[in-house]
Structure formats: structure tokens, C-alpha cells
Amino acid sequence: MEKPVSTNLDDYEVLIRRRGESDYASYCPQLTYMLKGTTHEEVEEAMKAYVRAYVESLALNGQAQQ
Question: By percentage, how much of the chain surpasses pLDDT 70?
Fold first, then answer.
């Protein structure tokens, strides 16, 4: 599966699930990337930061498409 080359942040989904009181996971299917944390806010912000960094790296490497 090829990684996307869009610089539009809205093209990347952030899915969050909760199991128990302090077990959260966030997943971005377009980047096939998952991370875990202890709060909803923690995993949401961490994933958004990951997606932003990915999009910025596309622009820096000249791979970006609008």
C-alpha cells in the first residue's frame, strides 16, 4: 500500500478507541499508524502531530500534492 501524498490534513482520518478507564489508541488508516496512550486527548493530539509532521515532510521532500 502506497503512502498518501496529500497535504490536505482533512484527507487523513484519526480514529480513537477506548478500552477500560485509561487505555486509549489512535489509528490513522491512510498512514497505517497506531499509537497508544492513557487519555483521549493524549492520543488525539499525538496523532494529529504525527500527521502534521508527515505532511510537512512531504512538502520538504517535494512529494506533496494538493
Answer: 94
Say how far apart CA 59 and CA 53 lie, in whole Å. 10
User: 38 is written with which cell numbers?
Assistant: 492513557
What does pTM read for this prediction?
0.87
Grid coordinates representing 34 are 497506531
What mean pLDDT value characterizes the chain?
92
How is the chain split into domains, by residue range? Answer: 9-56
Residue 53's H or E segment, with its range, is helix 40-60
Q: Which of 35, 36, 29, 4 minimizes the C-alpha distance to 14?
A: 29
Please count the other Cβ atoms lying within 10 Å of the Cβ belonging to residue 1: 6
Q: How far apart are CA 4 and CA 11, in angstroms?
A: 9
Count the neighbouring beta carbons within 10 Å of the beta carbon of residue 47. Answer: 24
